[in-house]
C-alpha cells in the first residue's frame, strides 16, 4: 500500500534524513495546500488510486480532481504504470494528456488543476531537504516561517534564489518584520497574522519587501498555523512566491483602465462582428446609455433601436480594405438631446499582431456644432434685422410724401367743396383719397411693426415698453399660422409698462405663440375645438404676467424638464432648431424676469412670463397736440436726400411759413454757413455722404443755436451708430411717415418760440 514518507512540519534548512527503502515514490511539488509541498509518497507493489473520494488511497483536496481520478500500478519488476480512470479534467504526464503510460524518473504527473507530483524510482530516497529543494525549485516557491512568540521570520534559501539574491541575504537567520517589510504594508501583514492566530485560519497576504540595497519586490505569502504541544498557535509556516511581475502588470492594467475611463473621448471596444464588448464612462455620457445596455449590440443598434443597421457593414468593410474608418455620427440620446460626434475606428491587435477586436474613438462635436448653429442663427437674425430696417427705411421715404400729398389733396378737395364745386364728383374723389390714405396708413403700420423686430439686438438698454402693444404685434405676426389650427383669444387687463426691449419682447411672445400653434395639429375641421389664449394680467407688486395657453398635445414631465435646454427639440428634423425656447429664456432673464411652463400630456401647455414693471414711463417719440398756434410765421429748412419728400413738406407748409429745402446735408451746411438762420430744421437722419448726424455735429461747432433747432426725421435706424445717436441726442425725433397735423403744430410752436 501507499505510505506517506513523513509530514512537512519544519522550515527549510532543517535537514531530516528519510528512511531507506527500495521502490518508487511520488513527491508533491504543487498543491492547493502550501504546507504540503515536498511531501513524499512511497509506492508499494500493487494498485494505488488517486482521487478526492473517501475510497481513494491518496486523497487530494483539489476540486479539479475526480473522486477516482487515476490509478498507479507498481508491477513486480518495479515498473510503474499510470492509468486515467475517465476523470473529468484528465491526467497529464509532462504536460500531455495520457490514458495509460509508464512512469520514468523525473516525470511530472498532474491531476486536477494544480496538483503535481514528481516521480522517482530511486532505491534510496533523498534526504528530505533535497526533496524539498527540488520540489520548490520546480514550482518557483520558497518557504517562510514566522514565530508567534518572538515575532521574527525566517526564510528558506529558495526565497533568496526566487528574488535573485545571493544565498544568505534573507535565509540563514531570524529577523524582525520591520527589517524587510515596506512600512506601508506592515500594519496589514501584522493584522493578517493576528487574525490567522486567533481564528486558526490560513494566512494569505501580499506585501512588499526590501532586502537591504535590493529594491522593493512584491511577494505572496500563504501559510498554515501550527500548534505547539499544548495545542496553542505557535507559528505560521507556508510558501512564498515572487509576484512582482504580476503586480507590475496589474498596475499597468490599472493605469490603462484609468486612462480608458478618464479620457474625455468616448471609447468603444467591439468584437470582430461589431458587437460592443466594452465602453468607457465618456461613451456612457456621450450616448446616454449605460455599458450594460450596449453589451452585445452594434453601436448603430444602440443609438437607433429598431432601425436597419446602416453603419456596421460599412465600418467592417472599410477596416478590411483600408485598415480604418472615420466619419460623423448623428443620433439622439435616450433623453432626446440631439448629438453629433466625430468617429474613428481601427483594429486592435495583440502582441503577435493578430486582430482581436476593434476600437472606436468618438469625439463629441455637439457643443462645437451648437456654437456654430448659434452663430448662424445670430447672423441670420442680424441679416434679417438689417434687411428689415433697410426695407422699412426705403418704404417710409416714398410713403412719407405719399401721405403728405394725400392729405394736401384731401384739403384741396375740401376747399373746392367749400367754394361750391359740384359735390358729387368731389365726394367721389374724396372717397378715393380716403381709401388710398387708409391703404397707405396700413402700410405705415406694417412698416412700423417691422421696425420693431428689426431693432433687435440694437436695443441694448431696457426701457419702458407697453406690453399690450408687444403681445398684439406678436399675435398679428403669428395669426397666419394660428388661424389654420385654433381660435386666438386675448384677455388683456390694464397693466403698467414693463422694463424691457420691445423688439426682443415681441420675439419672445411670437415664439411662444408659434410653439403653441405647432403643438396643435393642422386640421381645418377641428379649428373651433382648439384654442390659443394670450393673457395679460397684473402679478405680484411690481410685476406683470403674460401667459400663452394652448390646448395642444402637451408634454411629458421628462420633456418639460428639458424644454429650455439649448438645441433640445421634439420636433421633426428641419422643423425646429431647439434654440427658440432657450433664447426666450435668456431674453426674459436678461430683463430681470422669469419664464416657466406647465403641461399635461393630451391637454395642452401654459407658458408664463413674469416681467418687472417700469419705474417710470418715457415716450421716446412724443406725440404733439393737433392744435397749432395761429399767426406765427416761421423760417423752416427741410433737409432730405429724397426730393419728393422735401417738395411735399414744402408744399404742405409754404402757405403759412417760409420754407427752404436742401437735398443733401452739405447743401444745408452751406446755407447756414452763408448766414441763413432758421427757426426749425427738419432733417433726415440717414443720407448718403454726410448724414443728418454729421450735419448736427458740424453745426454744433459752427452754429450751435442752429444745431439745437434741428428735428430729426427717421424712416428707421438700422445701424448701431444711428440707434445710439437717436437714443442720446436731446433733440426731438419724428418717425416717417409724418403726421401732417402734428408737424404743423410743431412748426407753429417753433415760430412762437422764435418771436
Automatic annotation (TrEMBL):
Residues 48-98 form the FHA domain. The modification 4-aspartylphosphate is found at residue 684. GO terms for molecular function: ATP binding; phosphorelay sensor kinase activity. Keywords: ATP-binding, Kinase, Nucleotide-binding, Phosphoprotein, Transferase, Two-component regulatory system. Residues 203-255, 325-377 form the PAC domain. Its EC number is 2.7.13.3. This is histidine kinase. The gene is fixL2. InterPro entries: CheY-like_superfamily, FHA_dom, HATPase_C_sf, HATPase_dom, His_kinase_dom, HisK_dim/P_dom, HisK_dim/P_sf, PAC. It comes from Corallococcus coralloides (strain ATCC 25202 / DSM 2259 / NBRC 100086 / M2). One of its GO terms (biological process) is regulation of DNA-templated transcription. PANTHER family: C4-DICARBOXYLATE TRANSPORT SENSOR PROTEIN DCTB, SENSOR HISTIDINE KINASE. Signal peptide: none annotated. Residues 128-200, 252-322 form the PAS domain. CDD domains: HisKA, PAS. Residues 635-751 form the Response regulatory domain. It catalyses: ATP + protein L-histidine = ADP + protein N-phospho-L-histidine. Residues 390-615 form the Histidine kinase domain.
Amino acid at each position: 500500500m501507499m505510505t506517506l514518507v513523513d509530514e512537512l512540519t519544519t522550515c527549510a534548512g532543517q535537514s531530516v534524513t528519510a528512511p531507506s527503502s527500495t521502490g518508487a515514490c511520488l513527491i508533491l511539488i504543487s498543491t492547493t495546500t502550501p504546507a504540503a509541498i515536498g511531501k513524499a509518497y512511497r509506492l508499494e507493489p500493487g494498485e494505488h488510486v488517486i482521487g478526492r473520494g473517501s475510497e481513494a488511497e491518496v486523497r487530494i483536496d483539489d476540486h479539479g480532481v475526480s473522486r477516482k481520478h487515476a490509478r498507479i500500478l507498481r508491477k513486480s519488476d518495479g515498473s510503474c504504470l499510470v492509468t486515467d480512470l475517465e476523470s473529468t479534467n484528465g491526467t497529464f504526464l509532462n504536460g500531455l494528456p495520457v490514458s495509460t503510460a509508464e512512469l520514468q524518473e523525473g516525470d511530472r504527473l498532474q491531476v486536477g488543476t494544480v496538483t503535481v507530483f514528481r516521480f522517482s524510482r530511486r532505491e534510496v530516497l533523498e534526504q528530505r531537504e533535497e526533496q524539498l529543494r527540488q520540489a520548490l525549485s520546480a514550482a518557483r516557491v520558497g518557504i517562510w516561517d514566522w514565530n508567534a512568540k518572538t515575532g521574527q521570520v525566517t526564510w528558506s534559501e529558495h526565497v533568496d534564489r526566487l528574488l535573485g539574491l545571493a544565498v544568505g541575504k534573507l535565509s540563514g537567520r531570524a529577523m524582525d518584520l520591520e527589517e524587510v517589510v515596506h512600512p506601508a504594508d506592515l500594519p496589514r501583514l501584522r493584522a493578517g497574522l493576528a487574525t490567522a492566530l486567533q481564528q486558526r485560519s490560513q494566512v494569505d497576504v501580499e506585501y512588499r519587501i526590501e532586502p537591504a540595497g535590493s529594491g522593493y519586490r512584491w511577494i505572496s505569502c500563504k501559510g498554515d498555523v501550527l500548534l505547539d504541544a499544548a495545542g496553542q498557535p505557535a507559528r505560521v509556516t507556508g510558501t512564498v512566491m515572487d509576484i512582482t511581475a504580476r503586480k507590475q502588470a496589474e498596475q499597468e492594467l490599472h493605469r490603462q483602465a484609468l486612462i480608458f475611463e478618464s479620457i474625455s473621448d468616448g471609447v468603444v471596444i467591439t468584437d470582430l462582428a461589431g458587437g460592443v464588448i466594452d465602453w468607457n464612462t465618456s461613451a456612457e455620457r456621450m450616448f446616454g446609455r449605460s455599458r450594460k445596455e450596449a453589451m452585445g449590440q452594434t453601436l448603430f443598434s444602440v443609438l437607433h433601436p429598431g432601425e436597419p443597421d446602416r453603419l456596421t457593414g460599412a465600418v467592417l468593410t472599410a477596416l478590411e480594405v483600408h485598415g480604418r474608418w472615420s466619419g460623423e455620427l448623428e443620433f439622439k440620446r435616450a433623453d432626446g438631446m440631439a448629438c453629433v460626434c466625430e468617429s474613428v475606428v481601427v483594429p486592435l491587435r495583440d502582441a503577435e499582431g493578430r486582430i482581436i477586436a476593434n476600437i472606436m474613438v468618438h469625439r463629441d462635436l455637439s457643443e462645437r456644432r451648437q456654437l456654430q448653429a448659434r452663430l448662424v442663427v445670430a447672423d441670420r437674425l442680424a441679416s434679417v434685422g438689417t434687411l428689415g430696417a433697410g426695407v422699412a427705411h426705403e418704404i417710409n421715404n416714398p410713403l412719407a410724401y405719399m401721405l403728405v400729398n394725400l392729405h394736401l389733396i384731401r384739403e384741396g378737395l375740401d376747399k373746392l367743396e367749400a367754394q361750391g364745386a359740384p359735390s358729387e364728383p368731389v365726394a367721389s374723389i374724396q372717397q378715393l383719397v380716403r381709401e388710398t390714405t387708409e391703404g397707405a396708413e396700413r402700410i405705415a403700420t406694417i412698416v412700423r411693426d417691422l421696425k420693431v423686430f428689426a431693432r433687435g439686438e440694437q436695443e441694448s438698454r431696457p426701457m419702458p415698453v407697453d406690453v399690450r402693444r408687444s403681445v398684439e404685434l406678436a399675435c398679428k405676426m403669428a395669426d397666419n399660422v394660428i388661424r389654420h389650427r385654433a381660435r386666438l383669444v386675448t384677455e388683456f387687463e390694464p397693466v403698467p409698462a414693463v422694463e424691457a426691449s420691445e423688439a426682443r419682447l415681441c420675439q419672445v411672445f411670437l415664439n411662444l405663440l408659434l410653439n403653441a400653434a405647432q403643438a396643435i395639429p393642422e386640421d381645418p375641421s377641428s379649428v373651433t375645438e382648439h384654442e390659443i389664449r394670450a393673457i395679460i394680467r397684473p402679478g405680484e407688486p411690481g410685476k406683470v404676467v403674460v401667459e400663452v395657453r394652448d390646448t395642444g398635445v402637451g408634454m411629458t414631465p421628462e420633456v418639460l424638464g428639458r424644454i429650455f435646454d439649448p438645441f433640445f427639440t421634439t420636433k421633426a428634423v428641419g422643423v425646429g432648431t431647439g434654440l427658440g425656447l432657450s433664447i426666450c429664456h435668456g431674453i426674459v432673464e436678461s430683463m430681470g424676469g422669469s419664464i416657466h411652463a406647465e403641461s399635461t400630456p393630451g391637454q395642452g401647455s401654459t407658458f408664463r412670463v413674469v416681467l418687472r414693471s417700469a419705474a417710470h414711463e418715457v415716450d421716446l417719440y412724443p406725440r404733439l397736440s393737433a392744435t397749432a398756434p395761429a399767426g406765427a410765421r416761421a423760417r423752416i429748412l427741410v433737409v432730405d436726400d429724397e426730393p419728393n419728400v422735401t417738395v411735399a413738406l414744402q408744399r404742405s407748409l409754404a402757405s403759412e411759413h417760409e420754407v427752404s429745402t436742401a437735398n443733401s446735408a452739405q447743401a444745408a451746411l452751406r446755407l447756414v454757413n452763408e448766414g441763413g438762420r432758421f427757426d426749425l430744421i427738419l432733417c433726415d437722419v440717414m443720407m448718403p455722404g454726410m448724414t443728418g448726424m454729421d450735419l448736427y455735429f458740424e453745426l454744433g461747432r459752427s452754429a450751435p443755436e442752429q444745431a439745437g433747432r434741428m428735428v430729426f426725421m427717421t424712416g428707421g435706424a438700422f445701424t448701431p451708430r444711428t440707434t445710439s445717436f437717436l437714443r442720446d441726442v436731446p433733440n426731438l425725433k419724428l418717425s416717417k411717415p409724418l403726421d401732417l397735423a402734428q408737424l404743423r403744430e410743431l412748426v407753429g410752436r417753433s415760430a412762437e418760440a422764435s418771436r
